TrEMBL record:
PROSITE patterns: SIS (PS51464). GO terms for biological process: carbohydrate derivative metabolic process. The lineage of its organism: Bacteria, Bacillati, Actinomycetota, Actinomycetes, Pseudonocardiales. Residues 34-176, 196-337 form the SIS domain. InterPro entries: GlmS/AgaS_SIS (IPR035466), GlmS/FrlB_SIS (IPR035490), SIS_dom (IPR001347), SIS_dom_sf (IPR046348). This is Glucosamine--fructose-6-phosphate aminotransferase (Isomerizing). Keywords: Aminotransferase, Repeat, Transferase. One of its GO terms (molecular function) is carbohydrate derivative binding. PANTHER family: AMINOTRANSFERASE-RELATED, GLUCOSAMINE--FRUCTOSE-6-PHOSPHATE AMINOTRANSFERASE, ISOMERIZING. Residues 328-347 are annotated as: Disordered. The keyword Kinase does not apply. The keyword Repeat applies.
Length: 347
């Protein structure tokens, strides 16, 4: 690819992810030292602050904390601090701020305020020298390297992996379930081209898409919808499979493309009825994940099987490729999405 080739950065950074995963797993001892400090403080519950793709990583971490650590966890609204000046008592609370750049003013301000109010603050960022990392008591380096594409790919998955290793270490784990991810990611990226190309052809002219998943995979659905919206300008919405059946399914018809994330595990099992229902509505369903071959979909992208709690780190890879392919097929350049920049500053 030349320097002017549309999507060159996004394509290259998708391909770099096996190497990035190896770097993140190699830094597990440093991440585990932060996990050990969290365990010593014995937090009562956890709060997570993030924006954009990092918000989906925080949603993934919420499931990890609630399932693996059995602690209540919630996603915070930074604006309650930055706009409304709320001052909750956060003593004995774990407050994790997730930001690829570490430069969003609202997250920096909210993290500093949480620390002042007694929280144990941890910044998870791809910029260890950022203001966010300095604002927090502890920090975890995502270790993804410089990302040039506007649409986050390798920084998103590296953040997921870093969060898994962090939370696993809090419970005394050694990261065993993530050890094979570099190899599995390379395997996945080398085998999904034809399935992704088929999906691009199917959805090239669609204007409305829904992404859906259950459990850990809810984060994948959310990130997939964001990638489709920001690179291909599709009207893409993400729903938990459960929430989809509680109303939005009424809007699904034969003009709707549905991406169902279905990996081996309890979340994937719960998606069977969801996929069957949307198929009955006439939707064209693309199943993505290690259990994709076992659901009644129109087309499938099957991925290697992993433990359910690390499946989202692989699940999003074909959705990144799908977003890239659709953007190019529709005449766009995913490296230069209109109205977006690499660092978005909000308050």
């Amino acid at each position: 690819m030349t320097d002017e080739t549309p999507g060159r950065h996004m394509s290259a950074e998708i391909a770099q992810q096996p190497e990035v995963f190896a770097a993140v797993t190699g830094s597990r001892p440093l991440i585990a030292s932060v996990g050990g400090a969290i365990a010593e403080r014995r937090p009562r519950f956890a709060l997570l602050a993030a924006r954009g793709s990092s918000d989906h990583a925080a949603l993934y971490a919420k499931y990890l904390i609630e399932v693996l650590l059995e602690l209540p966890a919630g996603l915070v609204s930074a604006s309650t601090t930055t706009l409304y000046n709320a001052k909750p008592d956060l003593h004995d609370v774990l407050y994790i701020s997730v930001s690829q750049s570490g430069g969003s003013p609202d997250l920096i301000e909210a993290t500093a305020a949480a620390r002042d109010r007694g929280a144990l603050t941890v910044a998870v960022t791809n910029n260890p020298d950022s203001e966010l990392a300095r604002a927090a008591e502890l920090s975890v380096d995502v270790n993804a390297g410089v990302e040039k594409a506007v649409a986050a790919t390798k920084t998103y998955t590296a953040t997921l992996l870093a969060l898994y290793l962090l939370i696993d270490s809090v419970q005394g784990g050694q990261g065993e379930k993530a050890a094979a991810l570099p190899e599995l990611a390379a395997q996945a990226l080398s085998t999904i081209d034809s399935s992704v190309e088929e999906a691009v052809a199917r959805y090239r002219f669609v204007e409305r898409m829904v992404t859906t998943g259950r459990g850990y995979s809810s984060a994948t659905a959310a990130e997939g919808a964001l990638k489709l919206a920001e690179t291909s300008y599709l009207a893409a919405r993400a729903y938990s499979g459960a929430d989809l059946l509680h109303g939005p399914v009424a809007a699904i018809d034969s003009d709707t493309g549905v991406v169902a994330v279905t990996s081996t595990g309890k979340g994937g099992e719960a998606m069977r009825d969801v996929v069957d229902t949307v198929r009955q509505r006439g939707a064209d369903v693309l199943a993505v994940g290690s259990a994709a071959a076992d659901v009644p979909a129109s087309s499938r992208i099957v991925l290697p099987e992993t433990a359910e709690e690390v499946a989202p780190i692989l699940e999003v890879l074909p959705l990144q490729r799908l977003a890239l392919g659709l953007s190019l097929a529709r005449g766009g350049d995913p490296d230069s999405p209109r109205g977006l920049s690499k660092v978005t500053k909000t308050r």
